[in-house]
Amino acid sequence: MKASQELEQWLADWPAASAEVEHALTDECLTGTEVSLFVDNGLPAEERERAATHLARCSYCTRQVGSLLRASRDLEDRLRARRALGGLRERVGACVRVFIDEARGAFTRFDGLLNGFGPAATLTPAWATTGLRTRSLGLLDAPEETDDRDAVHEATLVGEGLPNVDLCCCAEDGSVTVCMDAAWGVALIGPDGSMEEVPLEPGEDGNYYAFMTAMPPGEYFLTLLRPEHPNHP
Ligand SMILES: [Zn+2]
Question: pTM for the full model?
């Protein structure tokens, strides 16, 4: 997985470069087989180098590699989450990737929602309505304090059949708070494949809160679980 993480970091810089070097498919372009071998790190060193050199110039092939990489990561993540959840998987309403980093605290990403797991939902960064549009037009730079323009600290999660969910990932102390307007379950899957249900605390505002603190660095899956007995709350 290390090679693909490396690749992913590298691909993150692509949008800025692609505007300059966009061109059509050429004879040098990677075949479908080469693309998947590249993602699986299955090309011999020499061919891998040739492919990397080509990718640096070809936005078409980079997109192919990027989307395959994303699809295979999603599949692996879904399998990891399913294994950890065991019998609880029937109750999954949504599953969000949460990252804990020693330097940057807790955060999720624009694409933090795990697709194909529960009903369709949307993760919206809290500042998206003001910042995202201007950023996408190139009028505003990404926040300066971070070199990771995808990091999201506050977001809302909306989807059919889901409660209203506010997710808050603290950059300072690395804590994660979930606020919901219904008493759904919250389970946290750790980087080691462990799973624990997080107790809910009813707030005075009528919402339900789940607090997660002191998590070791790593990639977590925050999972929202449908109430066990929806007809008898
Ligand atoms: Zn190409």
Answer: 0.71
Cα(173) to ligand 1 centroid in Å equals 43
The total of other beta-carbon atoms located within 10 Å of residue 146's CB is: 14
Distance 31 CA to ligand 1 centre (A): 9
State in Å: Cα 3 to ligand 1 middle: 20
Dihedrals φ, ψ of 29, to 5°?
Answer: -60, 150
3-state secondary structure 183-230: CCEEEEECCCCCEEEECCEECCCCCEEEEECCCCCEEEEEEEECCCCC
Contact 22, 29 (CB under 8 A): no
pLDDT tens-digit map of 195-233: 999 999 999 999 999 999 999 999 999 999 999 865 544
pLDDT > 90: what percent of the chain? 45
Distance 147 CA to ligand 1 centre (A): 28
